Amino acid sequence: MDIKAIILAAGKGTRMKSETTPKVLHEIMGKTLLGYVMDNVKLFTKEQYVIVGHQSEAVEKYITDNYDSAKTVLQSPQLGTGHAVSMVCPYLENYEGQVLILCGDTPLIKEDTLKKFVEFHNSNNSDLTVMSTIFDNPTNYGRIIRENDNTLKCIVEEKDATPEQKAVKEVNAGIYCLNWGKIKNAFSQLKTNNAQGEYYLTDIIQWGKEQKLNVNAFILENSDEIYGINSRQNLAQATKIMNLRKLDELMTSGVTIVDPRCTWISEDTQIGQDTIIYPSTYIEGKNIIGKNCKIGPCAHLRGGVEVCDNVKVGNFVEVKKSKISSNTNVGHLSYIGDSELGEHVNIGAGTITANYDPLSKVKSKTVLKDNVKIGSNSVLVAPVTVEEGANVGAGSIITKNISSWALAITRAPLKVLENWVKRKI
Ligand code: UD1
Ligand code: CA
């Protein structure tokens, strides 16, 4: 099926009160709001148009760096959601297929739901389908207004709604599927006669009805999925929802989460069976963790981490962009960054991989081969390789490669001055 996507990401996000970051680039556990939407949408649409406007350079760069199949389209000035979609019209002049429209600030939507939404659109021979859901507190969302026979009538925004309309709990999720050939003419006919003086995308519902097109609503049962981010409070709430969803999925698949109230695991982290995640662990970005591992308490995995089976990453250990092979222990108070650790490696407490040179701003790699043992409080100054089976004595600073089965030690010789204290008294 020929389906393209339009993602709205040009708005200012005034309520986020941010000077540095456009709304859609705010993050949930290491991934941007827009990233969540894009990752789902790219799985079943061939081409995506991302509408950018406010702080467009940053959003454009994010999209070009991360999504090959997406194009960015500039909307300037930003005159509303309907105006935003109309920016794509020149690109789709001869296109007759389907278009899925989503907002870049709705990161909780699942791929599966989007698929069901498109299936619903198809099985109803719909020309235009809008996703709706029921909220106990519908404030700030557009309300779905229905005719007496329950068919769709229109969508009314909070600011334009009468008290009676405000009482409606069915809201617009901001996700639409449309047969482009049938709906595209709507975008040149939208008006700004509303409280915000904007071109509302929501007005295409009424337009479709007037054109006698087949317009339907798909009611989403799990309303959490369309939770939109407009404020920092919303961001915190969405993070919580996403986290609990992930922890639940992990527990169902056989991972122990000792305390789900204070464990944070990103959506893009895979964890194998019988691994135990101890409290106050924070895992962000993309990671793969094997079976039978013990992670935490108070571990921080920052993304790009691969942990094989039977590994221990203990308390106050930070790991970034590293591979830790099976049966290896990093027990306590260590930093492992840009590193590759072999099997049966033991990392003593307080070991640091010094991966960053602040003068050259270059990050380098630390490689520890199988069976390497690193004594406590050692610094491995990268780039550095410790070959198979070598040992590093506690308190050493390793600045060059160490050969197999060697002992490397930089410790100053121990001096003991007998009765030194007594002589001072
Ligand atoms: C919108 C809907 C509302 C729905 C809600 C769901 C309209 C008029 N209202 O309201 O019915 O319940 O989403 O979350 O569509 N944007 C642009 N260009 C613009 C304006 C906005 O790209 O000129 C983008 C924003 O970046 C954002 C999205 O469109 O990603 C939605 O805009 P926002 O201002 O957040 O609309 P809501 O008030 O949430
Ligand atoms: Ca919004």
Q: Any chance you could write out the topology, listing elements then pairs?
A:
Elements: E1 3-9, E2 27-28, E3 31-32, H1 33-41, E4 47-52, H2 56-66, E5 70-74, H3 81-86, E6 98-103, H4 111-123, E7 128-134, E8 143-146, E9 152-156, H5 163-166, E10 170-179, H6 180-183, H7 204-210, E11 215-220, H8 232-252, E12 256-257, E13 264-265, E14 269-271, E15 276-277, E16 282-283, E17 287-289, E18 294-295, E19 300-301, E20 305-307, E21 312-315, E22 318-320, E23 323-324, E24 329-332, E25 335-337, E26 339-341, E27 346-347, E28 352-354, E29 356-357, E30 362-363, E31 366-368, E32 373-374, E33 379-381, E34 384-386, E35 391-392, E36 397-398, E37 407-408, H9 420-424
Parallel strand pairs: 1-4, 1-6, 4-5, 7-11, 12-15, 13-16, 14-17, 15-18, 16-19, 17-20, 18-21, 19-22, 20-23, 21-24, 22-25, 23-26, 24-27, 26-31, 27-32, 28-33, 31-34, 32-35, 33-36, 35-37
Antiparallel strand pairs: 2-3, 6-10, 7-10, 8-9, 29-30
What is this structure, in a nutshell?
This protein is of the alpha/beta class and 425 residues long. The chain is built from nine helices and 37 strands. The N and C termini lie far apart (89 Å).
Descriptive report:
This protein is an alpha/beta fold. Helix content is 19%, strand content 30%. The strands form 8 sheets. A 9-stranded parallel sheet has the order 12-15-18-21-24-27-32-35-37, covered by helices on one side. A 7-stranded mixed sheet has the order 5-4-1-6-10-7-11. The chain has a 7-stranded parallel sheet with strand order 14-17-20-23-26-31-34, with no helix packed on it. The structure holds uridine-diphosphate-N-acetylglucosamine and calcium ion. Uridine-diphosphate-N-acetylglucosamine binds next to β1, α3 and β10.
